[in-house]
Amino acid sequence: MARMVPDRPADTSSAAEVVVFGRIRDELSSEWIALHSVGLTIHNTKPWAEVDFVLIGPPGVFCLEVKGGIVSREEGIWYTTPRHGPNAGRPQALKESPFGQVGSAAAELFHFLTTRSMKIGKSITGYAVATPDVAWTLQGPDIDRALVYDQGDTVRSFEVFMSRVAK
After folding, report:
1. Residue 22: pLDDT band by 50, 70, 90 thresholds?
2. What is the dihedral of CA 101, 28, 85, 133, to 10 degrees?
3. Contact between residue 117 and residue 51 where contact means Cβ atoms under 8 Å apart
């Protein structure tokens, strides 16, 4: 069981984040520490950014962006369409792709950590995207399918997914 900080989901309206929180806690080994809802004031292009999860384990440090509902892209614009709640069925435009969002945050976190610890600077620092509500169907040169946790991955342990991300 992974050590969670905080020990219960942070204040979030995302049911998908709550589901992923439980999967991380219950399915990663005690060698892992997971930080939920980490704010970054060190982002190069944003005054403030948030990472849904920062996972620290034997292979390295990984940022994870969680998107609930259906994730889609049309004419270069990314959308999420909630399946439940007051906006159910209504696509909502995202400011950037989930990969761009988490990738840039991971890069900034990596830079911050390497200036403080050479050991961390020599470990893997990476990122991934989780869409536990649906099967991921999008393709493109900006998408690495190995870095996506979707509904199909829920039949296996989250540890299997993190091993895939680390590779």
Report:
1. very high
2. 80
3. no
Instruction: Provide the whole-model pTM.
Output: 0.91
139 vs 14, residue with greater confidence: 139
Q: Return the pLDDT at 44.
A: 64
Please state, as a whole number, how many other Cβ atoms lie within 10 Å of the Cβ of residue 10.
15
Q: In this structure, are strands 124-131 and 60-66 parallel, antiparallel, or unpaired?
A: parallel
State which H helix or E strand residue 72 sits in: strand 70-74
Residues with Cβ within 8 Å of 119's Cβ and at least 6 positions away in sequence, in order, are none
Residue (of 127, 131, 134) closest to 149 by Cα position: 131
Please calculate the CA angle 158-77-47 and round it to the nearest 5 degrees: 75
Query: What's the average model confidence in pLDDT over 1-30?
Result: 92
Interior angle at CA 26, CA 19 and CA 49, nearest 5? 50
Q: Tell me the residue length of the chain.
A: 167
Burial of 7 (0-12, 13-18, 19+ CB in 10 A): exposed
